[in-house]
Design a protein that fits this description.
mainly beta; 11 strands; globular
Length: about 130
Amino acid sequence: QIQLVESGGASVQPGGSLSLSCVASPSMSRNTRLAWFRQAPGEEREGVASISGLSGRTQYADSVKGRFTILQDNAKNTVYLQMTSLKPEDTDMYYCAAREFGGSSYDALSQSAYNYWGQGTQVTVSS
C-alpha cells in the first residue's frame, strides 16, 4: 500500500501563486497514476489534475487549464501542483490521490479511479 502526505497549502492573494507537494511512501511505481482533487464544504469533490506514471499524459479540469500544472519527480516520490493566477474560487481543501489498480479504462479525474488518498491541505485565496 501507499501513504500520501500533502503540504504547501497556504493563504494567498488573488492572482498569486502557490505550489503544493505530495510525497508518496514507500515509493511510487511506473504504474501509479497521481492526481489532485479539491473540495469545499457542501460541494462535490472535483478532479483538478492527473498525470500518468506510464505515459506522462496529463489531464486538467476546464476550470484550471492554463493556470495549474501537475508535475512529478520520481526520484523524490513526489507529485506537485503548481498553481498560478489564483482566484477566490480556487479556495478549497486539496487532496492528493494515487491509483494502483490494473486496467486502463477509467476517468482520470473521477474519484472512483483512485484507491489511495492523502489527508488534504487547505488553500485559501482572498484579499
